[in-house]
Each structure stands twice: as structure tokens, then as C-alpha cells.
Amino acid sequence: MSEDVRQQNNLPDEPVHLKPRRKKNEDTKYLLIDAINKYGQHLPKYKTEFPFAKPERLYKFDACFLRFHVAIEVDGGGWMVGGGRHGGDEDKNKMNLAVCYGYRVMHFSPAMLRKDPQGCVAMISRALRQYP
Known about the structure:
By secondary structure, the protein is α+β, with helices and mostly antiparallel strands. It contains 5 helices and 4 strands; from the N terminus they run H-H-E-E-E-H-E-H-H.
């Protein structure tokens, strides 16, 4: 592009890079939230990024139905060498601590949420109905 055209249209000298709307690693959480918002209007209130296991360690669930002690995790990165963060010992420790605190943890992959979001929400609903 010529200098004259840049000046006439008030364009910057360097190309402008727009920031993505969502961070790449947050997309999987939003798949869950979008599915619940679209198909789970009947579900009770839930919290996202819910911290638990204090004071031992600060872990967070992607979503949590507190009254029911049902937590939801979206496991991404399974295609990475070693299974990504969700394949490591730290994640297993997180799930074990969740059990110690009385949580039932449900796991969904991003592919599951893309392919059948309504089915994923139905599975969450089923778990909530089985509240002791």
C-alpha cells in the first residue's frame, strides 16, 4: 500500500493485529457455558471457575453445582504428547481431592460439547437428579 493511500485513509504504518475475542485456552470452558445456557435453562444455578481444596491446594472446577456437589470439567489437550495438562499426575491429584471433598466430577471433551451439547447437558441433568 502506498504512503499516500495510508495518509489519506488515516491508516497506521504497521499492520494492526486484533486480539481474539476469547483466549485460546478458555474456548473449551465457553463450550460448556454456551451448552448450559442454550439447553440447560431448567438446571439450578452453578458457578464457573469454582475454587476448592483450600488450604491444601487451590484447584478450580470449570463449573460446579454447589448444592449438589457435582463438578464439571472440560478436558482439552488430550491430543498433546502426554495427554496435555489433563493427562498428568497433577490433574489426577485434583480429581482425587475432589472425591475427598465429596464431589462427583463429570468430564466432557470439547468434541463432545461440539458434537452433542444437548446430550451433555442431559447427562448433567441426570447427575443432578441423582443427588443423595
